Amino acid sequence: MQEFGLQNLGKFLILVGIIISALGGLIIVANRFGFSRLPGDIEFTGKNTKLYLPIVSCIVISVLLSLIIWLINFFRK
């Protein structure tokens, strides 16, 4: 069993940072193309509260991720 040293921890943290940065960039780009509020997303606004339920956005993200994972598995065979 390989020992989990500080060098491996450093590499892991760098990888996590790159992934988080890529997700942040993707969110910024998606927001510029109007992906922030899709038709079908539910928004309730009260006197002192605001509730936003991104139902359609979650469905679109789920379909895209499923397609990407399917393509990766398809080309690995």
- The rough form would be described as extended
Oligomer state equals single chain
Separation, N- and C-terminal Cα atoms? 29 Å
Biggest sheet descriptor: 2 strands, antiparallel
Instruction: Indicate the radius of gyration in whole angstroms.
Output: 19 Å
Topology pattern, helix = H, strand = E: HEEH
Number of helices: 2
Helical amount: 55-70%
What portion of the residues fall into strands of 2 or more residues?
5-15%
- Count of strand segments: 2
- Protein structure class: mainly alpha
Question: Can you lay out the helices and strands and say which pair or pack?
Answer:
Elements: H1 6-32, E1 42-45, E2 50-53, H2 55-76
Antiparallel strand pairs: 1-2
Describe the structure.
The protein has 77 residues and is mainly alpha-helical. The protein contains 2 helices and 2 strands; from the N terminus they run H-E-E-H. The chain has helices spanning 6-32, 55-76, and strands at 42-45, 50-53. A two-stranded antiparallel ribbon has the order 1-2. The longest helix has 27 residues, at 6-32. The model has no long low-confidence stretch (mean pLDDT 84).
Question: Could you name the key traits of this structure?
Answer:
single chain, 77 residues, mainly alpha, two-stranded antiparallel ribbon, 2 helices, 64% helix, 10% strand, extended
Summarize the structure.
With 77 residues, this protein is mainly alpha-helical. Helices cover 64% and strands 10% of the residues. The radius of gyration is 19 Å and the shape is extended.
